C-alpha cells in the first residue's frame, strides 16, 4: 500500500485509481519531460502510473525521478510533473478520505468537471469529498517482469502468450507499437522490412503475415527470435471456393459452413487444419502469435461478413473453440479486426477477444480519433485497441496531442508503404525514430 497521510514509516508505491472512473492518475503519454500534464487513463501498470508517497510528503513517479507539481495555488491549476526539488508546491498528502491534498494551496487533486473519460485533466480544486477527488490504491496491471492482471481468453494460454498480452496492456495509452505487413512476391519476404530499415535504421516491432503465404510458421519464429512480434491473418477463400483473395470475396452459406457433414464444413475445417499447422510450428518454438482472423469485420466484401453480425460471431466462436479445444493451440492472442465502420453486432464479446481494433486507409497522417472512439465505444476501455491495418501511418505527435491511444499500427504492404504519397520518407523517419513509437529493438524480452 501507499503511505497515507500523517507520518509514513517508509516510502511505498502503487497506482492511484479514481473512485469516479476507475481510471488511474497518469502522466500524459508516458513522457518524463518537465511540465507534462496529469490526466486519468485506463490503468495499465506502466511507470507513469506508479506513484510513491515519500516521508517528505511528495508524490514521486517514474521511479522517483519526477514529482507531482502544482505550479500555482489557484483553483483550476492543472497538475503536472517537475524535477523533484522539495518545494512547497510539490508537497501532497494522500489522506484517509482518499483525497490528494496540496499542502501549499489547501486544495485537492480533482478530475476536471467530474468527467470520467480517458484523457481528462487533473487539476487543483476546493476539497469537497466527491468521487472525482477520491483515490484508492491498486497494484494495477504491470508490464512483463511483474504481475499482470490481464488474462488471455484462453485459460490454457502459454506463458509467452500471457506475457505478450500483458505487454500490450502495458503499452496501451503510453506508446504505439509499430507494425508492417509483409509481401512475398515483390523482392522476397523481407521487401517491406528492409525498405523501412534502409530508410530509418529501425525494424517494425510487429510483422504482419497472411497464413496462406508459404513459410509463415518459420518466418514467425525467426522474427520472434530477432526480438519481434508475429501477427497472422488469413484471406480464407469461401469454403469449397478457391482459397485465394478472389475466393475470399465469394458468397457461401455460413449455416452450411458450420454444419457437420456438408461439403462446406469439410472444406472449412480442412483450411483451419492447414492454418493450425503453421501456428503449431510457432507454438512448438515457444512463439506467441497475434491471431487476427476474419478481418475487416462488418464489411460486405468478405464472405465471413456478408450474412451479418450474428453469423460472423458464430464463425468466430467456432474457430476459437476449434483452435483451442480441437487443435490445442494455446499460443494465440485473439485480435478482433473490425473494418473502418465498426459495428457492435459483430463483436463476439470479451470472453472471445483479447484485443480489438479497426482499420483505415485514410489519405493523411491524422490520428483517426473518431475511429478509435467508435471502436472503444463497442469494446470498452478494458482491452487494448489496435489499428490493425492502415495506409498512411498516424503522426505520433498528433496521436499524443489528441489522446488517441491506438496500441499498435500495421501498415499494409507494397505500394501502401513504398509510395511516398501514402508514407513519405521524412514521415517514416519521424515515426520510426519517435520516442512514442516502439520498434523491434525496443520490445522487451517476452520469452
TrEMBL record:
GO molecular function: mannan endo-1,4-beta-mannosidase activity
Keywords: Glycosidase, Hydrolase
Active site positions, chain numbering: 296, 389
Gene3D superfamilies hit by this protein: 2.80.10.50, Glycosidases
One Gene Ontology term from the biological process aspect of the record: substituted mannan metabolic process
Record-annotated GH26 domain positions: 159-441
Keyword Hydrolase: yes
Domain of life of the source: Bacteria
Signal peptide: none
Pfam families: Glyco_hydro_26 (PF02156), Ricin_B_lectin (PF00652)
Name of the molecule in the record: Glycoside hydrolase
Amino acid at each position: 500500500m501507499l503511505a497515507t497521510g500523517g507520518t509514513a514509516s517508509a516510502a511505498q508505491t502503487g497506482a492511484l485509481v479514481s473512485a469516479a472512473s476507475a481510471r488511474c492518475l497518469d502522466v500524459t503519454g508516458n513522457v518524463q519531460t518537465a511540465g507534462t500534464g496529469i490526466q486519468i487513463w485506463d490503468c495499465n501498470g506502466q511507470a507513469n502510473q506508479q506513484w510513491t508517497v515519500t516521508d517528505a510528503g511528495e508524490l514521486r513517479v517514474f521511479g522517483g525521478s519526477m514529482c507531482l507539481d502544482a505550479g500555482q495555488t489557484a483553483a483550476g491549476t492543472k497538475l503536472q510533473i517537475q524535477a523533484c526539488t522539495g518545494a512547497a508546491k510539490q508537497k501532497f498528502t494522500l489522506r484517509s478520505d482518499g483525497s490528494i491534498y496540496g499542502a501549499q494551496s489547501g486544495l485537492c487533486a480533482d478530475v476536471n468537471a467530474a468527467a470520467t473519460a480517458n484523457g481528462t485533466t487533473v487539476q487543483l480544486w476546493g476539497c469537497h469529498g466527491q468521487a472525482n477527488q477520491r483515490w484508492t490504491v491498486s497494484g494495477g496491471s504491470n508490464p512483463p517482469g511483474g504481475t499482470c492482471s490481464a488474462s488471455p481468453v484462453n485459460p490454457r494460454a502459454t506463458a509467452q502468450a500471457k506475457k505478450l498480452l500483458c505487454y500490450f496492456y502495458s503499452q496501451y495509452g503510453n506508446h504505439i507499437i509499430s507494425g508492417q505487413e509483409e509481401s512475398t512476391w515483390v523482392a522476397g519476404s523481407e521487401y517491406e522490412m528492409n525498405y523501412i530499415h534502409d530508410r530509418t535504421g529501425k525494424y517494425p516491432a510487429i510483422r504482419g503475415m497472411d497464413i496462406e503465404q508459404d513459410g509463415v510458421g518459420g518466418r514467425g519464429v525467426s522474427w520472434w527470435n530477432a526480438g519481434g512480434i508475429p501477427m497472422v491473418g488469413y484471406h480464407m477463400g469461401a469454403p469449397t471456393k478457391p482459397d485465394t483473395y478472389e475466393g475470399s470475396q465469394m458468397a457461401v452459406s455460413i449455416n452450411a459452413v458450420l454444419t457437420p457433414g456438408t461439403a462446406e464444413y469439410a472444406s472449412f475445417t480442412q483450411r483451419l487444419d492447414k492454418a493450425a499447422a503453421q501456428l503449431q510450428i510457432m507454438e512448438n518454438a515457444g512463439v506467441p502469435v497475434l491471431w487476427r482472423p476474419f478481418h475487416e469485420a462488418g464489411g460486405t466484401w468478405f464472405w465471413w461478413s456478408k450474412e451479418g453480425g450474428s453469423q460472423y460471431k458464430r464463425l468466430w466462436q467456432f474457430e476459437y473453440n476449434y483452435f483451442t479445444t480441437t487443435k490445442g493451440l494455446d499460443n494465440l492472442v485473439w485480435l478482433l479486426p473490425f473494418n473502418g465502420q465498426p459495428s457492435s453486432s459483430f463483436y463476439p464479446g470479451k470472453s472471445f477477444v483479447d484485443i480489438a481494433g479497426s482499420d483505415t486507409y485514410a489519405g493523411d497522417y491524422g490520428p483517426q480519433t473518431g475511429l478509435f472512439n467508435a471502436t472503444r465505444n463497442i469494446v470498452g476501455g478494458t482491452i487494448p485497441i489496435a489499428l490493425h491495418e492502415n495506409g498512411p501511418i498516424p503522426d505520433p505527435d498528433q496521436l499524443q496531442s489528441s489522446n488517441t491511444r491506438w496500441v499498435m499500427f500495421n501498415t499494409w504492404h507494397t505500394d501502401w508503404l513504398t509510395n511516398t504519397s501514402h508514407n513519405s520518407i521524412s514521415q517514416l523517419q519521424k515515426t520510426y525514430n519517435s520516442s512514442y513509437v516502439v520498434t523491434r529493438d525496443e520490445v522487451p524480452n517476452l520469452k
